[in-house]
Amino acid sequence: MKILFAAGGTAGHINPALAVASYIRENYPDSQIMFVGTADHMEARLIPNAGFDFKTIEISGFKRSFSLKNIKHNIVTLINLVRSSGQSKKILNDFKPDVCVGFGGYVSGPVLEEAVHMGIPTCLHEQNAFPGITNKALAKQVDRVMVTVEDAAAHLDAKSDIVVTGLPVRGELIRADKEFSRAQLFIPDDKPLVLSFGGSLGAAPLNEAMFDILAESAESGEYYHIHSVGTNGSEYLEKFEKIGFKNGKKGTVEVRQYIDNMDICMSAADVVIGRAGASSLSEIEALGKASILIPSPYVAENHQYHNAMALVNRNAARIIEEKELTSKTLKSMLDKLLSDKDTLKTIGENAKKMAHLDSAKRISDVILSLAK
């Protein structure tokens, strides 16, 4: 059985595809798997590092504003679009897959379109509650469409029934134990733990809003708090050092550049504060955590807002839009949650109900059914 995956651009597209491919490789060792991506995005590093064959095509997205720079970019994109079709066809002819799977990003477009034209069974997976342009277009052509949350189905015109599969979550997160994790972090039983982060790079608006909250919390000791400023947030580490933090720590507060033990920190937490990327939300749901979500307004189709609202509408999270984010609004919402254990428990339980802990298997089953 030969399976070709098309995924690229961001970790949100690549990591779920890798999780599914790894599941298939582990459970169906005779399968042959190949990925298609671009040479200048993170898939060129992540996919080979995971031990999968990797081929590249030249493709980019269109810019919507009409500056001279963007017009030039769009001309190159048009040229790449024509070129990528031929490149995709060659890869498909050489590999001869039994099924072709798209996980989003511009690279999925030409690969799946060529596969459809060649009569190869096709399917795609949409990670966000509001689908991207590429997947919206492909949904009308492919044999099967899968989504992370049911809300996405309303925005897709698919030719067959849409399957809700959830999004794969790392095994170590699913297996994490709250009591064990709190012991690892030396968090006493009678104190809540708040975890906050703005993604691996960090989010300046969240760091700004969090600064006064963390400074005050370090003095009061009302609860424990772990915050990541992100790899782009070094200046905030310096700001915390100036107000008495030593090696990122003061009182019950710890400020890190990056959280490299997310399974421990998130499983130990009582409240999680962060952006609303599909992967992060799947982790929050898997662990049944109450959360305050601050969607990034800088992403395509404002999809993080729709991701967040999928939880908020089910009383499974709280939301603060970035335009309303201040230390005051965030602290008010956080204090309200921490002071109401029943609400905190209900929100976490509702988040847990949204989790699909067998997502990798669900997606794999769809892929394999098409391959047969």
Q: Give the H and E element order.
A: EHEHEHEHEHEEHHEHEHEEHEHEHEHHH
Q: Specify the number of helices.
A: 15
Indicate the low-confidence ranges by residue numbers.
none
Tell me the overall shape.
elongated
Which percent band covers the strand fraction? 15-25%
Rg over alpha carbons? 22 Å
Query: Residue-averaged pLDDT, rounded?
Result: 92
Description:
There is one protein chain. With 372 residues, the protein is α/β, with parallel strands linked by helices. It has 15 helices and 14 strands. It has helices at 11-27, 43-49, 68-95, 108-117, 133-139, 171-175, 178-184, 204-220, 234-242, 262-268, 278-287, 303-312, 327-338, 341-353, 359-371, and strands spanning 2-6, 32-37, 53-56, 99-102, 122-126, 144-147, 162-164, 193-197, 224-228, 249-250, 253-256, 271-274, 290-293, 318-319. The strands form two sheets. A seven-stranded parallel sheet has the order 3-2-1-4-5-6-7, sandwiched between helices. A seven-stranded mixed sheet has the order 10-11-9-8-12-13-14, with helices on both faces. A hairpin with a 2-residue loop joins strand 10 (249-250) and strand 11 (253-256). Helix 7 crosses helix 10.
